[in-house]
């Protein structure tokens, strides 16, 4: 191949990649969306997302749009976007989702960049799609629809963990001290999340709906799982003791361990506060250069860096009671843990990519001499970009409060938003507060 044609061919390949996340990383694409949310304009944020709903990353954009629509109070639209995301998820089995390991289907994209592989989502994101969808049904008064999503969220956590354990048979394809340093950093960032599959916030939300639907046994199972993730959370401890004693299951033993159960008085209703705050941090990247057979190579790997101080708890006044939420899910830690769990598979694809690029370098050197070798090295360097795609409108942290208050109606204000809580004896009221950027959404329902 003439040298000029080789250069032109590579330029055309680069031009063909221009519409992907290869040269405009996903966090940069999302910057206008987050800016609109910071300004409290959910409609402008949705308009920025519309073009991506029909592209190769449609699943990711549908998740973002579902979240933004809910923040804007349009729960029916949010419901439809999440349905689109679920339809995309249904195309992949769990092993492909937790490991991105269907190499044969991805080989064309994976030999250039992970950014050219259509976004398959992540297990913790799929779990949260179901949980957020359950709330959409709840706000529209459809308890039966909410229950369907509650069961799907529980099933998704179990199946994703099992699929990951089954898939984790690959060995690392790349040994490097800098890689090991990044793995250690991800372990540090993910310290509060033992895995990315079991989400205590989702479990608590599910338990509230189970109990309101007359299924305390299922609620107890989910609270027990949530406490395994957050063993020192006093609210989860109280909920476990209360449900266990209500069902006469290990009541004495758990009471000795965590304290006596707090049971409702005849004229009290149950309140569950779900508080979502902050933005999930975007992935960053680290470049690791090296030479192979005298030729320059580099790999770019995704990572996370510290996202600043933790969000403050939410304090509410309901009648004469002052309520303060507690953290039940650090989603930034879960995202870092998810990336750490995927590293064996990321490194496997890097090994395939390095081999392909090394062979391409040798071919270019034979066909085009020094110009060919240099051109190919430049091409490889330009296309070696870490995959930074993830669901960025998720909250950074989820907090909660659960307990019993006197029945009645109570005005509740959060910033400029307000609602009226209705508590009824023997029933559950769910209050959802989402605060992201300049948007605060507050919603409640008596179940």
Number of helices: 15
CATH architecture: Alpha Horseshoe
Could you tell me the radius of gyration in angstroms? 24 Å
End-to-end distance? 71 Å
Signal peptide: 1-23
Keywords: Signal, TPR repeat
InterPro entries: TPR-like_helical_dom_sf, TPR_rpt
Protein name: Tetratricopeptide TPR_2 repeat protein
Textual characterization of the structure:
- Keywords: Signal, TPR repeat.
- InterPro entries: TPR-like_helical_dom_sf, TPR_rpt.
- By secondary structure, the chain is an alpha+beta fold.
- The chain has one domain: Tetratricopeptide repeat domain (Serine Threonine Protein Phosphatase 5, Tetratricopeptide repeat), CATH 1.25.40.
- Helices cover 52% and strands 18% of the residues.
- The chain is built from 15 helices and eleven strands.
- Strands 6-7-1-10-11 form a five-stranded mixed sheet. Strands 2-3 form a two-stranded antiparallel sheet. Strands 4-5 form a two-stranded antiparallel sheet.
- A hairpin with a 2-residue loop joins strand 10 and strand 11.
- The longest helix has 53 residues.
- The protein is elongated and about 85 Å long.
- The protein starts with a helix and ends with a strand.
How are the elements arranged and paired?
Layout (H helix, E strand, L loop, with lengths): L2 H14 L9 H13 L3 H8 L8 H14 L3 H15 L4 H6 L3 H8 L12 H17 L3 H25 L9 H13 L10 H13 L3 H14 L4 H13 L4 H8 L9 E10 L6 E9 L2 E9 L11 E4 L2 E4 L1 E5 H53 L13 E10 L1 E7 L2 E7 L4 E9 L2 E8 L1
Parallel strand pairs: 1-10
Antiparallel strand pairs: 1-7, 2-3, 4-5, 6-7, 8-9, 10-11
Helix pairs in contact: 1-15, 2-3, 3-4, 4-5, 5-8, 8-9, 9-11, 10-15, 11-12, 12-13, 13-14
Organism: Ferrimonas balearica (strain DSM 9799 / CCM 4581 / KCTC 23876 / PAT)
Protein name: Tetratricopeptide TPR_2 repeat protein
Keywords: Signal, TPR repeat
